[in-house]
From TrEMBL:
Source taxonomy: Bacteria, Pseudomonadati, Bacteroidota, Bacteroidia, Bacteroidales
Domain Methyltransferase small: 35-120
Name the UniProt record assigns to this protein: tRNA1(Val) (adenine(37)-N6)-methyltransferase
Keywords: Cytoplasm, Methyltransferase, S-adenosyl-L-methionine, Transferase, tRNA processing
Record GO terms (molecular function): tRNA (adenine-N6)-methyltransferase activity
Top-rank taxon, per record: Bacteria
Catalytic reaction equation(s): adenosine(37) in tRNA1(Val) + S-adenosyl-L-methionine = N(6)-methyladenosine(37) in tRNA1(Val) + S-adenosyl-L-homocysteine + H(+)
Similarity annotation: Belongs to the methyltransferase superfamily. tRNA (adenine-N(6)-)-methyltransferase family.
Amino acid sequence: MSNQFDFKQFSIRQDLCGMKVGTDGVLLGAWASGGQNILDIGTGTGLIALMMAQRYPTAYITALDIESKACLQAQINTDLSPFSSRIEVIQDSIQHFSAAHQGLKSYNCIVSNPPFFVNSLKSKGNERTLARHTDSLSYSELFRSVSLLLSKNGMFSTIIPAEYVEQFISEGYIFGLFLTRRCFIRTVEGKPFKRCLLAFEKQKPSQIETLEVCMQTSKGAKTQWYTTLTSDFYIK
């Protein structure tokens, strides 16, 4: 895998970070609703923070990660981007950060590509383990922290495996966060849903916007939905 991934307006170096550039991050960064003050939980390489900075030219982004090498990587990528003045990289756990900032600061947009492997085998690399497993950040802890930091009319957007959707939504309800948008994603036509993009708010919606999409046709071509969603980022 290459140590650098080039997008239209920025590049991601990924030699220091446990998690590399992946489709999940690109999907979330291109889909999530933004705001003036954005928090990216578990920023990793800084990919989603940079995508949100590109999409929302007046927004200020806090990019948070618990892992020191990820923060260094995100800082390098931010410094080399056109958006460096609007992104602050902070090393901290979201649990500690939310407790320290409760009542002092709120965000009208929170995004997170969270750890999602539950009760599964762990990889040998510690950084990758932290990034991929819920041991360091359970769904309950994530929603608790989001509920403390999300503004009254703000939106929390995330992406998780399709098989965890119901469990994840239920955790949100416990902390007063209601599903408002969901997008089920197949990687290839005819295959089961692989991922789901979800958006939550503190206000219960009158209806939930639901979409079912596919990234590739059975012949391997990108679908119109996927092409349109990512056209501002992918070079080809």
